[in-house]
Amino acid sequence: MAALLAVSAVCAAGACWPSACSAQSRSTLTPARAAERAAAPSMGPQAPPGGVGATVGAVRSVPPRAAEIPAAPERAVSPPTAAAPAPAAAPEPELAPEPAPPRRCLLGDFCFGPVLTLGVLDVLGIGVHARSDHFGVNVDFQFIHFSTQGIPITLTLFTVEGRVYPFADTFFLAAGVAWQHAGLTARVVYRGDSQVPPFATEVRGAVNVPVLKLGLGFMGRSGFILGTDLAFGVQLGGNTVEFSTDLPRIPEVIAAEDKVRRRADAWVRAIPFLLQFNVIRVGFLF
Fold this sequence. Notes:
Blueprint: H1 2-12, H2 18-22, H3 31-39, H4 51-61, E1 111-120, E2 124-131, E3 135-148, E4 151-164, E5 171-190, E6 199-219, E7 223-235, E8 242-243, H5 251-270, E9 273-285
Antiparallel strand pairs: 1-2, 1-9, 2-3, 3-4, 4-5, 5-6, 6-7, 6-8, 7-9
């Protein structure tokens, strides 16, 4: 009984919280311990007027001090992540040097070789042609042998010509000079007389005509080639029939020479200009 009175006195003096006073029935204090608490100075807050309820309200209204507010746990801040480096650009592949173009001919782009010709007027021909992409040159010899009115005639044409290939392909324009030759032969048979023994021989005459040739055509570039062309020739000078004979000037010889001359003049008058059509050319340029 004395212990309960001591606890009540301590609570009345404000030495404990109401919770402690309400729990006095559950706590057992010795008289000595109660006397010590009663004698000890009060360290707690003084109860305000109005009793325990006012004390509780005051306690509730007192804002907690900053020091008493538990600090929020610091969130671990991860160090800034360095930006991933941009992928290095793949190195451009080194282009292999372009291989040198194969050589077309023995002399690089300059090709040359033999060419056979089949034409009109001077029918058969053989020559040497050479060309690059834009320029060319050719040398040709063409011929034909025939007879007219009992007089054998041999025609030959020697040509030196330059060519321009404006499109670096097969088409060309040509200009050059040519030497047209006509050889005529007349046979003379003499029965002989008291001064000249009998003999049989030939009277030979020739006509030489210089010609300026202009033409156009088509010709391959290298290797096995085909071509065709047309040439127009203008006579550059006069023409005369030249005889090569040392026969005596007897009527039979004079008559034969006169026959040859007339045929040559007729041929020259019939062809005041030269028109040469080479139907086909076949060759191989190395």
